[in-house]
Amino acid sequence: MSMKIEPSSILAQLDTILNSKTFVRSKINTRLLRFLVKATLENNDLKEVTIGWELFGESYDPVKFDNKVRVYVYHLRKKLDAYYSNEANDNEIYFVIEKGQYKVSFLSRPKNEKHTNNYKLLGMFSTALVICVIIYFVFFNENKQIPFWNDNIHSTFPTTMLFGDYFTLRGKVVTGGTGITRDFQINSLDDYNSYVLNNIENAKHIRPSYIQYITRMAPICSKEVSYLLNPYGVDFKIKLLSEWNISNMDDENLLYFGSTKTLSGLKNIISEHFPNYAFESMKILHTNPKSGLETVYMDRFENDSIITDYTVVSKITGPKGNSIKFFLSDQDCGAIMATEYFVNIDSLHAFYNKYNIENNDFIALFKVTGWERQGYDMELISIDLAE
């Protein structure tokens, strides 16, 4: 149960935890917990950037998004759970770090109660905290400015989230039966008709299936964006690009998530605003506006596991003042990482401040590397601001 606990008692509990078997050999968790507890007691503003600099010093780059801080805090929560389950006495103070938070809550542990009861109390506390946060955002934080997302939060235009979907063919498949297949070079009915004109014999065995599909970036990215926008009362429609009419482009704020292959007519929007970028299948070409030197960035695969995915994030102002935002990734992981980066308030502010973006339109190229089972790192390769 929650009550006023003296700082001296909290610090004594901190020493007890750090000298326990669970923590005594874990230097990074010891350092992190000590820092978070003392910062909480001093009522300091705890942000991901602040913790990153504390843990990693000057080597920590807030613009390079690699999840380090959140991973370490996640493991710290696990360590605390292990300590209270295996070593703590019933009357010890309970240290709680809520998911998505970095400050520590200090709860008393009533004597002679099982750990399960404490977890029930913790769950009730968590629910109440979530409700309070939502109320704060809705009623007291309506005018908060969030770079990149301001035009979605405060705009009179409705928001539509578009997902690039893939064109499929119906015909004979490699197993000998009939099914749905995908040809990377045919991603629209126009592409199909062009293929038929040049490959009449082969075309006899296939026809458009009119069944499109999307990849895993769709549910993950939509979830991340909804967590950010919903507390502000921002509602949005979700559509497949193939079902959306480009004539609506001037009347909506658009969020596009998909590969460069599924851009369709939206590719012209990027080309008009940033002609130094060109897109091909798993390839991005960037021309330096000063030197004229062209660099080719190609996605790579190593051992069928390690991926290098070049990802583009862009914000463009439409003809009527609406916004068009792009998250382009041919391998999914890039769009997912970029979305997580741009919905994280700390990394977003660091990005905008470092490159003096303010309200400018921009296009940024990121390199996402890693192994799916071990996570990915993301670093900025280049950024161009609209003049």
List key phrases describing it:
3-stranded antiparallel sheet, 8-stranded mixed sheet, single chain, elongated, alpha+beta, 387 residues
Summarize the helices and strands and which ones pair or pack.
Layout: H1 7-18, H2 27-41, H3 48-56, H4 68-86, E1 94-96, E2 105-107, H5 115-140, H6 150-154, E3 159-163, E4 169-172, E5 178-181, H7 189-198, H8 200-203, E6 206-208, H9 217-229, E7 236-240, E8 253-258, H10 267-273, E9 277-280, E10 283-287, E11 294-298, E12 300-302, E13 306-317, E14 323-328, H11 333-343, H12 345-354, E15 362-371, E16 375-385
Parallel strand pairs: 3-7, 3-8, 8-14
Antiparallel strand pairs: 1-2, 4-5, 4-6, 9-10, 10-11, 12-13, 13-14, 13-15, 15-16
Helix pairs in contact: 1-2, 2-4, 9-11
Explain what this protein looks like in three dimensions.
- With 387 residues, the chain is α+β, with helices and mostly antiparallel strands.
- Helix content is 36%, strand content 23%.
- It has twelve helices and 16 strands.
- The protein has helices at 7-18, 27-41, 48-56, 68-86, 115-140, 150-154, 189-198, 200-203, 217-229, 267-273, 333-343, 345-354; strands at residues 94-96, 105-107, 159-163, 169-172, 178-181, 206-208, 236-240, 253-258, 277-280, 283-287, 294-298, 300-302, 306-317, 323-328, 362-371, 375-385.
- The strands form four sheets. Strands 3, 7, 8, 12, 13, 14, 15 and 16 form an eight-stranded mixed β-sheet that branches. It has a three-stranded antiparallel β-sheet with strand order 5-4-6, with no helix packed on it. Strands 9-10-11 form a three-stranded antiparallel β-sheet.
- The longest helix has 26 residues, at 115-140.
- The radius of gyration is 25 Å and the shape is elongated.
- The termini are far apart.
